[in-house]
Amino acid sequence: MSILVKSTGKYFQRIFFTKEYYVLIAGLILVGEVVLNTAIIKYVRYTEIDWVAYMQQIRGYSLGERNYLKLRGDTGPIVYPAGFVHIYSILYSLTQQGQDVKLAQYLFGVVYLITMGFVLAIYKHCQSLPTYAILSLVLSKRLHSIYVLRLFNDGVAMMGLYVSIWCLITRRWNWSALCFSLALSIKMNILLFFPAFGFIYFQSVGLLKTINLMLIIVLVQAWLATPFLLEYPREYLSKAFEFKRVFEYQWTVNWRMISQNNFLSPSFASLLTVLHLSTLVWFAWTRWSRAFGEDGLIPLVIRGLQQYSRPAAKRPNELTPDYIVNLCFTSNLIGIVCARTLHYQFYSWYAHQVVFLAWQTPYPIFLRILLMVLIEYSWNVFPSTSISSTVLLVSNFLLLFGTWWSFDALYSFTPVASKKKSKVP
């Protein structure tokens, strides 16, 4: 009996604690998501928020209008880059000018599945995340709602972003830049990942190649925006990349604990911007530039400038998928913590990332799970309250602090042979 229990325990450990059966578990998750999303679309009532406005805006484009200020819907003019117009023009055509909402829901179900597929593909390469942890990816009520019951463009943008990160960890540099730009062309929140992408490019391929990759990103943006830039460039740039847009207090998820006057205050926005930039610099200075035997940000920059055609990192091949994903997700989380406002659909910006970030902290497993539960709870309180906003802010901060605290232990330089012996907690 003891032998049976022991062998069963070992088999259980192989399935859920190692990557040996990861593909099988990931496949079962995707099959389960097909069933779950189909059931949600069939049996849960669709909620109209922005879909009609999107279709009204796209109708103007289909009729030949190229002035971004005149591409209007019930919520006002388009406030997204040109990729949004092209993607939703396809949806406009497929759904009979937006009338077939049910078909649109199924199409967004496909977007959800592709997104999940690439998230699972990314985590397959991440040795710090045990297989059992990915089971949490299917549990978010809010995330399913964002994709198949609300039809927000956030989900489409994040799909492109995860494809880009997968290209990044598999060192398909040109493809990663292309997919990053495509994602950015749908919604500007993708810029939150940009500091990490730039840092990783500089470390991995050097200054010259990084400039080439940045050109890919810029040229893709210009190509997609050509119909608007040729006729109304100022109008396009003022709306597609509107950094000073002020959001309404009634929809905030993260700052309900402060007054509306403070929320709308320009000084509050400036403070958050300073915090955002200074936190990025702090992470780059104290953590990112010291991984795998590096000796700091300034030596890294100097080395990269001196040997501009070669990788700036001392050991570019040591930059593991875990490290790359950590930088991307942390850069995004810093932006989320310092965001002037978060609306409910913005949860899709990092919902798939919370589990990885939790396992990048030094906290015990029960506290990691508790943080994940509290974050999910906060995003499901509607309307948000002072308590839910405070819980969200504190939970996000603890997640961010935990990744900073344990970074050295996870990514200090050790010989490859000893890394293979390390076990996933």
Automatic annotation (TrEMBL):
GO cellular component term, pick one: endoplasmic reticulum membrane
Q: Please tell me which top-level EC class this enzyme sits in.
A: transferase
The source's domain of life comes to Eukaryota
Question: Which transformation does this protein catalyse, written as a reaction?
Answer: an alpha-D-Man-(1->2)-alpha-D-Man-(1->2)-alpha-D-Man-(1->3)-[alpha-D-Man-(1->6)]-beta-D-Man-(1->4)-beta-D-GlcNAc-(1->4)-alpha-D-GlcNAc-diphospho-di-trans,poly-cis-dolichol + a di-trans,poly-cis-dolichyl beta-D-mannosyl phosphate = an alpha-D-Man-(1->2)-alpha-D-Man-(1->2)-alpha-D-Man-(1->3)-[alpha-D-Man-(1->3)-alpha-D-Man-(1->6)]-beta-D-Man-(1->4)-beta-D-GlcNAc-(1->4)-alpha-D-GlcNAc-diphospho-di-trans,poly-cis-dolichol + a di-trans,poly-cis-dolichyl phosphate + H(+)
Report the principal subcellular site.
Answer: endoplasmic reticulum
Question: Does Transmembrane helix show up as a keyword for this record?
Answer: yes
Query: What Enzyme Commission number does this protein have?
Result: 2.4.1.258
Q: Which UniProt keywords apply?
A: Endoplasmic reticulum, Glycosyltransferase, Membrane, Transferase, Transmembrane, Transmembrane helix
Membrane-protein topology: Multi-pass membrane protein
Q: Which residues form a coiled coil?
A: none
GO terms, molecular function: dol-P-Man:Man(5)GlcNAc(2)-PP-Dol alpha-1,3-mannosyltransferase activity
Regions that span the bilayer:
21-41, 78-94, 106-123, 143-165, 177-201, 213-230, 263-285, 323-342, 354-375, 387-413
Pathway participation? Protein modification; protein glycosylation
Q: Where in the cell is it found?
A: Endoplasmic reticulum membrane
**Cited function:** Dol-P-Man:Man(5)GlcNAc(2)-PP-Dol alpha-1,3-mannosyltransferase that operates in the biosynthetic pathway of dolichol-linked oligosaccharides, the glycan precursors employed in protein asparagine (N)-glycosylation. The assembly of dolichol-linked oligosaccharides begins on the cytosolic side of the endoplasmic reticulum membrane and finishes in its lumen. The sequential addition of sugars to dolichol pyrophosphate produces dolichol-linked oligosaccharides containing fourteen sugars, including two GlcNAcs, nine mannoses and three glucoses.
> What family, per the record?
Belongs to the glycosyltransferase ALG3 family.
Name of the protein in question: Dol-P-Man:Man(5)GlcNAc(2)-PP-Dol alpha-1,3-mannosyltransferase
In which organism is this protein found? Puccinia striiformis f. sp. tritici PST-78
Instruction: Print the organism lineage.
Output: Eukaryota, Fungi, Dikarya, Basidiomycota, Pucciniomycotina
